[in-house]
Each structure stands twice: as C-alpha cells, then as structure tokens.
Automatic annotation (TrEMBL):
This is 7,8-dihydroneopterin aldolase. Homooctamer. Four molecules assemble into a ring, and two rings come together to give a cylinder with a hole of at least 13 a diameter. It catalyses: 7,8-dihydroneopterin = 7,8-dihydromonapterin; 7,8-dihydroneopterin = 6-hydroxymethyl-7,8-dihydropterin + glycolaldehyde. Belongs to the DHNA family. Its EC number is 4.1.2.25. Residues 5-118 form the Dihydroneopterin aldolase/epimerase domain. It comes from Staphylococcus saccharolyticus. The gene is folB. Keywords: Folate biosynthesis, Lyase.
Length: 121
C-alpha cells in the first residue's frame, strides 16, 4: 500500500538546540510529515472521519515544535512521531523530517536536518 498524507514545508519558530544561543534566540524549523494511511475508505466515502485530518496533525506538530525545547532535533522528531502514532490509529507509519535552515554553523548551505520513520504498532 502506497497511500500517504503529507504536510510539506510547515514552518515553526522554536528554541531547540544544544548551543545556548539556540535556546535563547531560537530559529525557524521546517518540518515535513508523511503519514502512511489506507485512503481507500475515505476515497469511497468522501467523509473526513475515514481519514486522518491533516489540520489536526498540523496543530499537534505546532504544539510540540513551539513548545518545550529539546536539545536534539532527533528528540523533537521522536516526540512528533510518538504523538501522531499514539493519537491517530489509521496511521501505519510516520515519517518526520526536520530541517534547520540557519543553524549557528559558519558556511553556505540550504540547511541541516534529520529524518526518522516510525511504524505505528
């Protein structure tokens, strides 16, 4: 099954990072979420109850990224995946990608980040 719901390029301001400046000044975090979901029932019924409401997922991610800081974006991604997998039983797998576009590292780049994939058991 290859059905997915995705939230691409959602941006939040947060205070995550190992360096004190990241915790004090903060920065924008770009988050991409991909949810593996069987969309066939919703495709037939045309009813939001038969899918995962991506507006609700957005609000969950926003609460986490704009909330309590994590030192590592790996930890932040785990928190997001755990929230999604524990609250949306239709989700079979959650992929979370987090990018820091402007980490405090000298150089020229588009960003640094991580991506995790967690199955919903």
């Amino acid at each position: 099954m290859n059905d997915v719901i995705f939230l691409k390029g959602i941006r939040f301001y947060g205070y995550h990072g190992v360096l004190p400046a990241e915790n004090e000044i903060g920065q924008i975090f770009v988050v991409d979420i991909t949810l593996k979901v069987d969309l066939s029932v919703a495709g037939q019924s045309d009813d939001v109850k038969d899918t995962v409401h991506y507006g609700e997922v957005f609000e969950d991610v926003k609460t986490i990224v704009e909330g309590t800081p994590s030192h590592l974006i790996e930890h932040l991604a785990e928190r997001i995946a755990k929230r999604i997998n524990s609250h949306y039983n239709r989700v079979m797998e959650t992929k979370v990608r987090i990018t820091k576009e402007n980490p405090p590292i000298p150089g020229h780049y588009d960003g640094f980040g991580i991506e995790i994939v967690r199955e919903n058991n």
